[in-house]
Amino acid sequence: MSKRSSQKKTALVCCGGTALNIGPVLSAHDVDKFFIDTSEANFSDSIPDENLYKIRHIKGGGQDRRKVYEACTKGIASPNPNDQDQPPVIDDSIERFDLTSYDFVIVLFSLSGASGSTIGPLTMSALSKAGVAVVGVVVGDTASATFTKNTIGTLKTLELNAIKNKKPLVISYHENQVGVPESMVDREVLFVLEALAELTSQNNHGLDTQDVYNAVNFNILAPVEPQLAALSIFDSRTEAARILDPITVLSLYTNREAAAPFGDPYYTKTGYPRNPNPELPEQLHFVVNTALIEDHFKLLDQRQLELNRQFGSYRPRKALLGVDDNNEGDFVG
């Protein structure tokens, strides 16, 4: 499917609490930012009301992804409770922000909570089916058993949606880990957002909207089945060339003399920013492959086994009192 250029270039959709903390910091002026959550507690007064969407039928996710999923897929409020033609809440949010009119949409969300990890995949899937070039920038978490379980479940949901809809889904994966400051991961995410804003600015000579669309929807030109794929971004051609089995590669160079092809991808294109962002490196390489997704799953499964072994060795404490102890009321003298 061909994606024609529109007046609206790039949108960033921030889903859930983690994304609402990071998204407003993005300084790219040509990116429209929107915010979706199950609770108004994370909404900032600095964000215009028209750019906010509160999911109906729920007040916070509380780590319960299924509860959030049910709220997102319910029909919107209607004067007629028997109206069966109500669009689902998630579709209403996409329509409210007119997201299908954008050439490129970045969906930012955490994999480990409940709100973002549910809203994000639903938004990506809906936009992909609508023919929009979409990339997820996602943050996993292995600091606890619950976070690890949710991270694995959300990645599997993204894989399922890609296979079921026969549309690839591409994500840039980042991870909060024990001993690693979350601020460091936040900086990684912001770099990726800035780089994607540069890539999709439609101000890069030699690189057009269709090139970006083809890179994300890699099954158009490459003999690779639709599935979940990883996007890795590098500021060094040498580092980018180390990615195994690249499917698509897009590169940006501020210096034409430095440009050179690398690797053996199915599809590659190079662009030259007309007005490069001075805060970004002189070269950027966007590499999509699927092997990295398998690596993520292996490491997450190992972490889950490690945590399960830890909990298996915990010694439960025996209660000091039994129900048959002779105590009156709720007081022990």
What's the SSE blueprint?
Blueprint: E1 8-15, H1 16-22, E2 31-37, E3 52-54, H2 65-73, H3 89-96, E4 102-110, H4 115-129, E5 133-141, H5 145-165, E6 169-176, H6 182-199, E7 204-205, H7 209-216, E8 228-234, H8 237-240, E9 248-253, E10 267-273, E11 283-289, H9 291-312
Parallel strand pairs: 1-2, 1-4, 2-3, 4-5, 5-6, 6-8, 9-10
Antiparallel strand pairs: 7-10, 8-11, 9-11
Q: Helix- and strand-based class? A: alpha/beta
Instruction: Name the CATH architecture.
Output: 3-Layer(aba) Sandwich
Low-confidence stretches: 1-5, 78-82
- The radius of gyration computed from the alpha-carbon positions, rounded to a whole number of angstroms, is 22 Å
Mean pLDDT level: 89
Order of H and E elements: EHEEHHEHEHEHEHEHEEEH
Strand arrangement in the largest pleated sheet: 3-2-1-4-5-6-8-11-9-10-7
| Beta-strand content | 15-25%
Figure out the total of helices.
Answer: 9
> What is the fold named in CATH at topology level?
Rossmann fold
According to DSSP, the number of beta strands is 11
**How would a textbook summarize the main sheet?**
11 strands, mixed
Shape assignment: globular
CATH superfamily: Tubulin/FtsZ, GTPase domain
Distance between the termini: 76 Å
The CATH class label is: Alpha Beta
Number of domains: 1
Specify the helix fraction band: 25-40%
Quaternary organization? single chain
Describe this structure in words.
- This protein is of the alpha/beta class and 333 residues long.
- It has one domain: Tubulin/FtsZ, GTPase domain (Rossmann fold), CATH 3.40.50.1440.
- The protein has nine helices and eleven strands.
- 41% of the residues are buried.
